[in-house]
Write a structure and sequence with these properties.
This protein is α+β, with helices and mostly antiparallel strands. The chain has one domain. About 30% of the residues lie in helices and about 20% in strands. A six-stranded mixed β-sheet has the order 1-2-3-4-5-6. Helix 2 packs across helix 3. The chain is globular, with a radius of gyration of 26 Å.
């Protein structure tokens, strides 16, 4: 069984993360810009197949010439071998970061990290991508290590698909530093027909 720790997986994949992310993001841009307009209401299976094919094109273009990366193309499955230490596949995932493979014997053994004839007995990780329900937005791209349906660890590929949010300082934070609260007084306005000293509407 192919087992790897989160720390070891991150160490191996750190030099490749931005290219892995770009494979999905660039494929998604092509899907949104061209392919999505071909059908008014594309079925999810058709859409997933198109996006998968576009991702494969990006993988071949970006990793095909790398000596430390080996592309394994068998049937309908393209795997990326990285430094002879682990295997990667690209798949659509749900909110629980689980794939939706049809449960064939081969897919079950693959997901369970069990040996498969013709494949090196290495840990297998998924470069998972998740879109919103209407597939109009790419929500996140995540590296996932699972055994069966159980996600053992995962981490996001930081980029345009999963932007980092900036936390702005709040008034509460500022008052904690000074120890004083700022008093805000409503401004009085003089309305038509009012005499000096009478209160108008407070803003």
């Amino acid at each position: 069984m192919g087992i790897i720790s989160e720390g070891d997986a991150k160490a191996v994949l750190a030099p490749y993360e931005q290219e892995l992310l770009a494979c999905v993001e660039e494929a998604w841009k092509v899907w949104k810009g061209k392919a999505a307009s071909l059908v008014s209401r594309p079925r999810s299976r058709w859409r997933a197949g198109i996006v998968s094919g576009l991702i494969e094109e990006q993988v071949r273009m970006r990793f095909g010439a790398m000596k430390s990366v080996h592309l394994i193309d068998k049937g309908e499955r393209l795997l990326v071998g990285v430094e002879s230490k682990l295997l990667l596949r690209f798949k659509k995932v749900n909110e629980k970061l689980q794939t939706s493979n049809y449960p064939t014997r081969t897919s079950r053994r693959f997901d369970n990290q069990q040996p498969l004839e013709g494949y090196a007995d290495l840990p297998r990780l998924t470069v998972g991508y998740r879109a919103n329900r209407l597939a109009t937005e790419l929500l996140e791209v995540v590296l996932v290590f699972s055994i069966g349906s159980a996600v053992k660890f995962s981490w996001p590929l930081v980029g345009a698909a999963r932007p980092q949010q900036m936390t702005l300082p709040t008034q509460t934070a500022n008052t904690q530093k000074t120890g004083k609260k700022r008093r805000v007084t409503a401004k009085k306005t003089q309305g038509p027909g009012q005499k000096d000293g009478s209160e108008g509407e407070q803003v």
